[in-house]
Amino acid sequence: MCTNQGFKSLIPGPLLDSGYLYWFLTQAGKSIEYSGNGTTFTEVSKAAMERFRILLPPLAEQRRNADLLDRVDAVRRRREEGRRLMDELLRSVFLEMFGDPRTLDPKEWPLRR
Prior knowledge:
By secondary structure, this protein is mostly helical. It contains three helices and two strands; from the N terminus they run E-H-E-H-H. It has a two-stranded parallel sheet with strand order 1-2. The radius of gyration is 25 Å and the shape is elongated.
């Protein structure tokens, strides 16, 4: 998604929490993109963004929602890192137990039919 030169920065005012805006835009990205136009790439103009509406609960609720989504996202990232580390451990244990299967008989164990 690209914007043109006339696009203005999104600066939250006193009634909009920046964390809430981040999460709202993260989820609304496709809707915003669909409001753009262009053949080579989708361009979202300032006018298109001015027509876009943001759900605006009370500021305290915005902050609570943004905080919750931040914490959930942190758990998701830690879980992904844990999976990556477990995959690495599994490969490491396999190689230590059996050697590299790409080499011929890496442990020089006797062969049987």
